[in-house]
Design brief:
The complex is a heterodimer of chains A (164) and B (184).
Chain A: H1 2-18, H2 23-33, H3 37-53, H4 64-76, E1 81-83, E2 89-91, H5 96-124, H6 131-155
Antiparallel strand pairs in A: 1-2
Helix pairs in contact in A: 1-2, 1-3, 5-6
Chain B: H1 4-13, H2 17-39, H3 45-59, H4 69-87, H5 112-116, H6 120-131, H7 134-145, H8 150-157, H9 161-175
Helix pairs in contact in B: 2-3, 2-4, 2-7, 3-4, 4-8, 7-9, 8-9
Classes of the chains: A mainly alpha (164), B mainly alpha (184).
Chain lengths: 164, 184
């Protein structure tokens, strides 16, 4: 009977150490501990385990921080510009694949604009459009949007963000 | 007023290396300590540490700054270490998965706990900790060394709070007999 009783309080000690014991139970446990040597010893042994867990000190390779920071800087290399908390502007790198996508989009933009301009001029003559209007139309409706799209490709993050 | 965790989240979203460098300085030791506890060995931990920080740089945007940084960091480290160990078919943290292989240092080498023990109580625990089920050891270390709540540990290990609590109780029950009946 007494063993069962102590088991209950020893479970409460475990819960207390895990940080999940309610205030009411904590009060009850304190009262019990003042009269029960067995449970006091149980608590003492548990506290020795916890103290022991804090008694390990692992040596960190002294070059590890430098190695990690170098790897971070290398990975960071080449992506746009970012302002740090202090307000300083630092150069960030743009991944090569973003540059490649930008170059392709830029080429397609100019080639596409040239083709559209030629087609538009052929159509413009019979319909009596002024060449300058055709040029303006191609600039506004084709070249500028495609340039914007190319710039967006350059600024886009190289990888989707996800749950780590 | 921006809290510390929100400042970290903002820095990580922007890929701010200054913020990241400060985090490396602040959390490096705890990261090493956690990974040693997780794996039960020292070799290979430096590689996992480096991989963890690279992952933080790459996916830091998924840290929302609503909770403490270290549980998020430990979860990243845990995923990396366990994925790598699974790929090498060397290790399973949870022996209940059936294919579990106990973590251990290379044969003949002293355990990382034996080398790291700095107090008498720690020396007495070193061997038992090395042979303790990794899931129990991890729960004990996160609770009593890293001072994380059960909810935070639950997020790291991807298990319910009740399971985490059970692991802590069992871990304590395994180690406690070494100090029972000891008045020292």
């Amino acid at each position: 009977m007494n063993i069962d009783h102590n088991d209950t309080f020893q479970c409460m000690i475990d819960e207390s150490l895990a940080g999940v014991l309610s205030k009411e139970k904590a009060q009850s446990l304190r009262e019990h501990l003042s009269t029960c040597a067995t449970c006091r010893e149980y608590l003492s042994a548990s506290n020795r385990v916890i103290a022991g867990l804090s008694g390990f000190s692992f040596e960190v390779n002294p070059t590890l921080n430098a190695r990690v920071l170098a790897a971070l800087k290398q990975a960071e290399g080449g992506r746009g510009i970012v302002a740090s908390e202090s307000g300083a502007i630092r150069q960030r790198s743009v991944p090569i694949k973003n540059w490649a996508a930008f170059a392709v989009a830029l080429s397609m933009s100019f080639v596409g604009s040239g083709l559209v301009f030629q087609m538009a001029e052929r159509l413009a003559v019979p319909r009596h459009f002024v060449s300058a209007h055709v040029q303006a139309g191609v600039l506004v409706f084709w070249l500028l949007p495609s340039l914007c799209a190319a710039l967006c490709l350059l600024a886009a993050p190289s990888e989707k963000r996800g749950i780590a | 007023m921006v809290s510390e965790t929100q400042r970290i989240a903002l820095g990580l979203r922007q890929g701010d290396v200054v913020v990241l460098e400060a985090l490396v300085e602040q959390y490096q030791y705890r990261l090493v300590r956690y990974l040693v506890s997780l794996l039960g060995r020292r070799d290979g931990v430096d590689d996992f540490v480096q991989e963890t920080w690279l992952r933080v740089l790459e996916r830091g945007g998924s840290y929302d700054g609503q909770s403490r940084f270290e549980p998020w960091l430990f979860r990243v480290a845990r995923n990396i270490a366990l994925d790598a160990m699974r790929k090498r078919a060397m290790f399973s943290l949870d022996s209940n998965e059936g294919d579990g292989v106990r973590s251990s240092p290379a044969s003949g080498e002293p355990s990382p706990y034996t080398l790291a023990a700095r107090t008498q109580d720690a020396e007495r625990l070193a061997h038992s900790l090395q042979t303790l089920e990794p899931v129990y050891r991890e729960a004990l270390i996160l609770r009593f060394q890293e001072d994380l709540s059960l909810q935070e540990i639950s997020v790291i290990v991807g298990a319910p709070v009740s399971t985490v609590a059970s692991r802590i109780y069992r871990g304590l029950a395994t180690l406690r007999p070494q100090f029972e009946g000891d008045k020292a």
